[in-house]
Design a protein that fits this description.
Strand content: 5-15%
Distance between the termini: 40 Å
Shape: globular
Number of strands: 3
Number of helices: 4
């Protein structure tokens, strides 16, 4: 069952979002992956996309076969966690889209974890 969703009343308004933002602000993160569904590919962080984030996106795409550059839907995605993370000191960040809305793509993302653990921004 699909239910209506909302991004909240304003940026950072939801408690789970505030918790993630607080964690990022209080820790020195070298890289970050934010998972979403479904099927558009790997979106590097930053506006414009930063070079370290593009390198991470390319490496993850190569390992997982998720599209990079992501599928062009004709609209621009702004205000992502990856964008915010890079703007707030994370060395490289990506939003990674799973293949559909129900599966975890476990095998692909086990490969992604190996890439991620060996990545240096």
């Amino acid at each position: 069952i699909y239910r209506p969703t909302t991004g909240g009343r304003y940026a950072g308004s939801e408690p789970e979002t505030r918790s993630v933002m607080s964690f990022i602000e209080n820790h020195k993160l070298e890289a970050l992956i934010s998972y979403h569904s479904a099927a558009l590919g790997v979106f590097p962080g930053g506006v414009p996309w930063t070079e370290p984030s593009k390198r991470l996106a390319k490496a993850l795409s190569k390992a997982t076969r998720y599209p990079y550059p992501p599928i062009d839907t004709g609209c621009e995605y702004t205000g992502t966690l990856a964008d915010w993370a890079v703007e707030n000191g994370v060395g490289a960040a990506v939003d990674m889209e799973l293949r559909n809305h129900k599966d975890t793509d476990f095998e692909e993302n086990l490969k992604a974890l190996k890439v991620f653990l060996n990545f240096a921004p």
